[in-house]
Amino acid sequence: MMDTPSMDHGVACAPVLQGLWEHVRNGQEEILLSPYLPALCAFLTHVLFCAPFFVLDALGSVCQQVRSWRIAAGSGSPPSILRWFYCFWRVLFKYLTIVLPATALLQTLRSPSLPALAPSCWQLFVEVCACFLLFDMLFFIWHFSMHRVPWLYRNIHQLHHQHQTPFALASQDASSAELLSLLLLALSSAWVVGCHPLSEVLFHLLNSWMAVEDHCGYNLPWALHRLLPFLGGAPFHQAHHSLYNRNYAPYFTHWDHLFGTYYG
Ligand SMILES: [Zn+2]
Ligand SMILES: [Zn+2]
């Protein structure tokens, strides 16, 4: 169902964003509001974002420069193509059996709408930042609890820790319950912030990219955490996978600093 033009999402719409929003929205409402679209997009973007790291892992066996970027230098070669392959099928299976039906049900209950106005650039920026800050906090609390409550760790989180040296695709290699809980945290963050759909899409895309980067196993010279020092990046999250009781936050480092669980 379409919204009539409203002032809900700001009047000062940047012309570029408005043009983009109208281009995306016009005539494609049925596709955009399909309850299956979120899971489909989440899986496809995850695979797409992992593709460059698949190439890096493949190049690692022949290129010393690529190997020098690996965080776990000296602790073994990059993951084999077979490991990628098995991980891909595990993630696909969970998406088809759990994530797709669950998100379809959620989208049907949410009955989202497409406002006529795009957000302003400032609104887009503020909403995406707010989503990340909120998601980071909720993730920290949930992740910390999963490590502190043995039942939660064994039944929900342990599967993700099968990768002591993670690789890009492993960011979604978790139990169905964990995948669902993280999805719920991301959706609730956007809901609490009251995001415009365009801001929400951008948040989900960036969230997917940053989760992949966290697990990629490379400390690349152009990685986001080198540009933005308040982000932990792959070295920060890889330390979590090897030490277990450090670096619980997914992206920012302030919660771990505050709770004394930061490992640099
Ligand atoms: Zn992880
Ligand atoms: Zn963990």
From TrEMBL:
Subcellular location(s) of the protein: Membrane
Alphabetical list of Pfam families matching this protein: FA_hydroxylase (PF04116)
Cellular component annotations (GO), alphabetically ordered: membrane
Transmembrane regions listed in the UniProt entry: 36-60, 81-102, 122-144
UniProt keywords, alphabetically: Membrane, Transmembrane, Transmembrane helix
Biological process, per Gene Ontology: lipid biosynthetic process
Superkingdom as given in the UniProt entry: Eukaryota
Protein name from the UniProt record: Fatty acid hydroxylase domain-containing protein
Species the sequence originates in: Seriola lalandi dorsalis
